[in-house]
Amino acid sequence: xxxxxxxxxxxxxxxxxxxxxxxxxxxxxxxxxxxxxxxxxxxxxxxxxxxxxxxxxxxxxxxxxxxxxxxxxxxxxxxxxxxxxxxxxxxxxxxxxxxxxxxxxxxxxxxxxxxxxxxxxxxxxxxxxxxxxxxxxxxxxxxxxxxxxxxxxxxxxxxxx
Length: 161
Fold this sequence. Notes:
Elements: H1 6-18, E1 25-29, H2 37-48, E2 53-57, H3 61-66, E3 76-79, H4 91-106, E4 110-113, H5 119-127, E5 132-133, H6 144-153, H7 156-160
Parallel strand pairs: 1-2, 2-3, 3-4, 4-5
């Protein structure tokens, strides 16, 4: 895993500080079941000291529980798109997402839900207390050069009304 490679962490730290990439949102995706959590915690603690936000993605309570939270400060939990699929038809899925949101709020973490592609999903997610959404309902993925045009063309009122 890249997060346990000291050279990767050192390079990332250098790039962020030298280029003043402050307020950057860095998504941490842990998908390796045999990752060394002590090394991971050490490297995430290094990133925590930077003026960036760490988002915990691929939500897995086991990793969150094992990482030393006194050293690593996540600012955001991102709920994966796979949890949102067929949301309107699945009470268990709604209860599960509600539990994630409750946990995140109790830890004072921001919550972003990915894959919100329909009005029904948007309404359910917002009613559950999620603060931010991503998905085709808001916009398709955009190349960097088109983001400015997107913000000029659309306002948040347009998206959330």
